[in-house]
Design brief:
With 59 residues, this protein is mainly α. 73% of the residues lie in helices and 0% in strands. The protein has helices at 2-14, 18-27, 32-51.
């Protein structure tokens, strides 16, 4: 349900943009396995960011 809410919100806000149309076209054929991989990668990125949040660029 939340996904539908966000999907409708995104369409309302950005539905007339080329970026939105491109994103919808690109992801239209993604299956559960594709989304699982995307979510795993996003989780890894978020973990790495969280683990390094207190470090400086020159560390």
């Amino acid at each position: 349900m939340a996904e539908q809410k966000y999907s409708k919100e995104a369409q309302r806000k950005w539905g007339n943009t080329d970026a939105y149309k491109q994103s919808v076209s690109k992801t239209a054929n993604y299956g559960k396995a594709d989304w699982d991989i995307i979510n795993e990668k996003a989780s890894l990125i978020n973990s790495k960011l969280a683990n390094n949040i207190d470090k400086r660029v020159d560390d």
